[in-house]
């Protein structure tokens, strides 16, 4: 009798303790009210579009506090390149980050900043939702798909050798662990975002072992998520069908190189990198959302930049954090402004300034309240 | 051949860890050296295989799987109707896991005849890695190093983009399709992508020669050399070297992900494109989709000695096989390319014009183009057009 009560009490206690330990970002927000997010403005047009996003978030009354950090590569002890320790600390604490474009100086001696960030936080999944934007006309309408790309291995392992003079070998690495991780993330994402199907993209007819392994892991993950439909398709068939009818695709999961090509292809369908959001999911709950366009040094500081890509990435971030209401509000204001076609930046076909575009969105949100 | 033995002796010096891999690499490397011995000439100066008995050519025909057999039957019908002096030697290659005998027979037949027309052979990727893709084996055994695809917007086909005219030249034997894979540790698979100087120079040379022949202004190399610095870097370097010998042709390069983005927004900017194997796969499929789909574009695989013609996107079309809905245009145009290769240009023009007339004027479209026509109707329309032009024909 007494022993049974003790056992029951402890099991209840451990459940409560366990729940508190696994606190999700949602519960953290709920407890504290304001969520702190690391903001990396970046280079070139980075600072001005980051300011635009901060202004819009303020107008939307989003419960976000920004912690600005810089990420220029520094030489750590032992000579290894790394990101500044205060940036790393901030990200490890906050878990969520928003990043503008970073420049990679040529012959600086250090690897690209994006690569450094990826390695530091083990950002294994690159997620790009591609949705057609009403008001920004492209030959393709009704695009609504998500590309999920494995971001740590594959063809970008960086392992190359000169075998003999004139013969070069590049190694594409596919591991069971990484494939399993990305496959499960893809299905998890599909489930959490009410997506109906996941398609694995591969070339297992040619690369039987490597893509075969990737495919096997996807199939295994599919078994665990019976509520999501799973299909497989060759890379060339996907490309062929994508440019004819992109509406047939939902969530696509694939290894690194195919992901690189397909995610840019899909960005092209909706209007380019200036309007495409992107998120990088890492181990230990870290997630960094970013704009994927360049630093545009020629228009930097001239109030001409288009903050849409960074803004939509920030909206993606809000959804990841469970703040769906604020996400919807900001996204609607942004899309309505573009659809209206009265205040648009130059790349969207208008001639307004970045600040005017930002103000138009803020005004819309105030009118919504 | 000195280099070949150098590779093998080098492999003994280098860490035994690499020996197995080097051996395989030497095999890939070796075939290019052998083929240089039989160097005839490129592109326009192709010496066609000698016409055999009675002035008729013999061409190997590989029906393949899916829609291959039915479409090739239609090609044979059209040839018979137009009295084309070509006989087909049919070699069936079964996609089932059997011996390699039928594949060897096919390769021997093509070596004998010099030219082939083929459908796609299905690769069941559930089979173990030792069973290689038969299409790939065919290409590498015959050293068909250049895959050429010409994508043109057709006036009779509704597409989102207009005025596309792109020639895609894709390296066809090495790169990611080297089929060299191994599992070094359980759960870790390595796949080798091989880029060689010889093959890169060869394909770049082919691309520029073709561009010059056809009066094209610009050649774009597609690569990912910012990430694969040695591999794609070597490819790019070879292209630049060859480009310096063709001052009248502009040469530029573009990274593959940017290329696909540009293709879906502004495809008219591209003229001739040259690239390694995998990017060629992606870009050719994107371009085929842009001009109207897999049923429209023919493809050709050229080597120094042999040539094999097929549809550009190499689809098996299992789901539409034997339903009389497949689009015969691509296969018919591929057979016209073959006739051009055999220097039977008159017959090629007649059939090609008939196919394009059916496509653009009578607008008889199959389901993939949004029409209601069946394969048979399209073929019959082609034959009627041929007859109406006054060509000497057999019975309809």
TrEMBL record, chain A:
Membrane-crossing ranges are: none
State where it is primarily located: mitochondrion
Q: Which Pfam families does the annotation name?
A: Iso_dh
State a single Gene Ontology molecular function: NAD binding
Keywords in alphabetical order: Magnesium, Metal-binding, Mitochondrion, NAD, Oxidoreductase, Signal, Transit peptide, Tricarboxylic acid cycle
- Top-level lineage group: Eukaryota
Gene Ontology biological process terms from the UniProt entry: isocitrate metabolic process; tricarboxylic acid cycle
Intracellular or extracellular location(s):
Mitochondrion
Record-annotated Isopropylmalate dehydrogenase-like domain positions: 36-361
Any one GO cellular component localisation term in the record: mitochondrion
- Reactions accelerated catalytically: D-threo-isocitrate + NAD(+) = 2-oxoglutarate + CO2 + NADH
Q: How does it assemble?
A: Heterooligomer of subunits alpha (IDH3A), beta (IDH3B), and gamma (IDH3G) in the apparent ratio of 2:1:1. The heterodimer containing one IDH3A and one IDH3B subunit and the heterodimer containing one IDH3A and one IDH3G subunit assemble into a heterotetramer (which contains two subunits of IDH3A, one of IDH3B and one of IDH3G) and further into the heterooctamer.
Q: Which family does it belong to?
A: Belongs to the isocitrate and isopropylmalate dehydrogenases family.
Q: Which NCBIfam families match?
A: mito_nad_idh
- Describe its function: Catalytic subunit of the enzyme which catalyzes the decarboxylation of isocitrate (ICT) into alpha-ketoglutarate. The heterodimer composed of the alpha (IDH3A) and beta (IDH3B) subunits and the heterodimer composed of the alpha (IDH3A) and gamma (IDH3G) subunits, have considerable basal activity but the full activity of the heterotetramer (containing two subunits of IDH3A, one of IDH3B and one of IDH3G) requires the assembly and cooperative function of both heterodimers.
Protein name in the entry? Isocitrate dehydrogenase [NAD] subunit, mitochondrial
From TrEMBL, chain B:
Q: How does it assemble?
A: Heterooligomer of subunits alpha (IDH3A), beta (IDH3B), and gamma (IDH3G) in the apparent ratio of 2:1:1. The heterodimer containing one IDH3A and one IDH3B subunit and the heterodimer containing one IDH3A and one IDH3G subunit assemble into a heterotetramer (which contains two subunits of IDH3A, one of IDH3B and one of IDH3G) and further into the heterooctamer.
> Gene3D superfamilies, per this entry?
Isopropylmalate Dehydrogenase (3.40.718.10)
**Listed GO molecular functions?**
ATP binding; magnesium ion binding; NAD binding; oxidoreductase activity, acting on the CH-OH group of donors, NAD or NADP as acceptor
GO cellular component annotations, sorted alphabetically?
mitochondrion
Give the UniProt subcellular location, in the record's own words: Mitochondrion
Supply the alphabetized keyword list: ATP-binding, Magnesium, Manganese, Metal-binding, Mitochondrion, Nucleotide-binding, Transit peptide, Tricarboxylic acid cycle
Q: Which Pfam families match?
A: Iso_dh (PF00180)
GO biological process terms held by the UniProt record:
isocitrate metabolic process; tricarboxylic acid cycle
Start and end residues of each Isopropylmalate dehydrogenase-like domain: 58-382
This protein is called Isocitrate dehydrogenase [NAD] subunit, mitochondrial
Per the entry, what this protein does is: Regulatory subunit which plays a role in the allosteric regulation of the enzyme catalyzing the decarboxylation of isocitrate (ICT) into alpha-ketoglutarate. The heterodimer composed of the alpha (IDH3A) and beta (IDH3B) subunits and the heterodimer composed of the alpha (IDH3A) and gamma (IDH3G) subunits, have considerable basal activity but the full activity of the heterotetramer (containing two subunits of IDH3A, one of IDH3B and one of IDH3G) requires the assembly and cooperative function of both heterodimers.
């Amino acid at each position: 009798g007494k022993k049974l009560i003790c056992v029951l009490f402890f099991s209840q206690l451990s459940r409560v303790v366990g729940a508190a330990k696994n606190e999700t970002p949602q519960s953290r927000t709920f407890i504290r009210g304001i969520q702190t997010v690391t903001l990396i403005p970046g280079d070139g047009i980075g600072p001005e579009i980051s300011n635009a996003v901060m202004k819009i978030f303020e107008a939307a009354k989003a419960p976000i506090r920004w912690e600005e950090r810089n990420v220029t590569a520094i030489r750590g002890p032992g000579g290894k390149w790394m990101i500044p320790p205060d940036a790393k600390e901030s990200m490890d604490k906050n878990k969520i980050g928003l990043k503008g474009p970073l420049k990679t100086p040529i012959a600086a001696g250090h690897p690209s900043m994006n690569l450094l960030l990826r390695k530091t936080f083990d950002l294994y999944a690159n997620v790009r939702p591609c949705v057609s934007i009403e008001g920004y006309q492209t030959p393709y309408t009704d695009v609504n798909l998500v590309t999920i790309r494995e971001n740590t291995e594959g063809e970008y392992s960086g392992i190359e050798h000169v075998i003999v003079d004139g013969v070069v070998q590049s190694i594409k690495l596919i591991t069971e662990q990484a494939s399993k991780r990305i496959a499960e993330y893809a299905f998890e994402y599909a489930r959490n975002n009410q997506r109906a199907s996941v398609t694995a993209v591969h070339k297992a007819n040619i690369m039987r072992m490597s893509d075969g392994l990737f495919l096997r892991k996807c199939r295994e993950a599919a078994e665990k998520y019976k509520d999501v439909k799973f299909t497989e398709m060759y890379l060339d068939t996907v490309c062929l069908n994508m440019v004819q009818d992109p509406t047939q695709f939902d969530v696509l999961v694939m290894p690194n190189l195919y992901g690189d090509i397909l995610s840019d292809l899909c960005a092209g369908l909706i209007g380019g990198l200036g309007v495409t959001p992107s998120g990088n999911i890492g181990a230990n709950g870290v997630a960094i959302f970013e704009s994927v366009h360049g630093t545009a040094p020629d228009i930097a500081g001239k109030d001409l930049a288009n903050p849409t890509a960074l803004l939509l990435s920030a909206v993606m971030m809000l959804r990841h954090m469970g703040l769906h209401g604020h996400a919807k509000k900001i996204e609607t204001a942004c899309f309505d402004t573009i659809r209206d076609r009265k205040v648009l930046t130059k790349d969207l076909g208008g001639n307004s300034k970045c600040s005017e575009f930002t103000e138009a969105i803020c005004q819309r949100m105030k009118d919504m309240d | 051949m000195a280099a070949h033995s150098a590779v093998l002796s080098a492999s003994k010096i280098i860490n035994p860890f690499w020996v197995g891999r080097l051996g395989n690499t030497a095999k890939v490397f070796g075939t290019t050296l052998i083929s240089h011995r039989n160097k005839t000439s490129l592109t326009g100066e192709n010496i066609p295989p000698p016409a055999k008995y009675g002035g008729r050519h013999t061409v190997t025909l590989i029906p393949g799987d899916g829609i291959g057999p039915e479409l090739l039957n239609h090609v044979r019908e059209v040839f018979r109707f137009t009295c084309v002096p070509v006989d087909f030697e049919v070699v069936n290659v079964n996609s089932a896991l059997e011996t390699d005998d039928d594949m060897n027979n096919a390769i021997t037949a093509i070596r004998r005849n010099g030219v082939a027309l083929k459908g796609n052979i299905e690769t069941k990727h559930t089979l173990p890695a030792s069973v290689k893709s038969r299409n790939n084996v065919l290409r590498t055994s015959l050293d068909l190093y250049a895959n050429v695809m010409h994508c043109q917007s057709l006036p009779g086909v509704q597409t989102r983009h207009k005025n596309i005219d792109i020639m895609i030249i894709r390296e066809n034997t090495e790169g990611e399709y080297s089929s060299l894979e191994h599992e070094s540790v359980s759960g870790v698979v390595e796949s080798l992508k091989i880029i060689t100087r010889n093959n890169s120079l060869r394909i770049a040379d082919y691309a520029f020669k073709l561009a010059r022949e056809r009066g094209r202004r610009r050649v774009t190399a597609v690569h990912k050399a910012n990430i694969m610095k040695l591999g794609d870097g070597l490819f790019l370097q070879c292209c630049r070297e060859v480009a310096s010998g063709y001052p009248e042709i502009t040469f530029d390069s573009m990274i593959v992900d940017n290329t696909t983005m540009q293709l879906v927004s502004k495809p008219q900017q591209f003229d001739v494109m040259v690239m390694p194997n995998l990017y060629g796969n992606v870009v050719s499929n994107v371009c085929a989709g842009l001009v109207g789909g897999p049923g429209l574009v023919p493809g050709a695989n050229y080597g120094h000695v042999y040539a094999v013609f097929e549809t550009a996107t190499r689809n098996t079309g299992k789901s539409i096989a034997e339903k009389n809905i497949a689009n015969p245009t691509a296969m018919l145009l591929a057979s016209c390319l073959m006739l051009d290769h055999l220097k039977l240009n008159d017959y090629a023009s007649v059939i090609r014009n008939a196919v394009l007339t059916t496509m653009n004027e009578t607008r008889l479209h199959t389901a993939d183009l949004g029409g209601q026509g069946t394969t048979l109707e399209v073929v019959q329309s082609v034959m009627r057009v041929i007859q109406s032009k006054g060509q000497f024909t057999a019975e309809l």
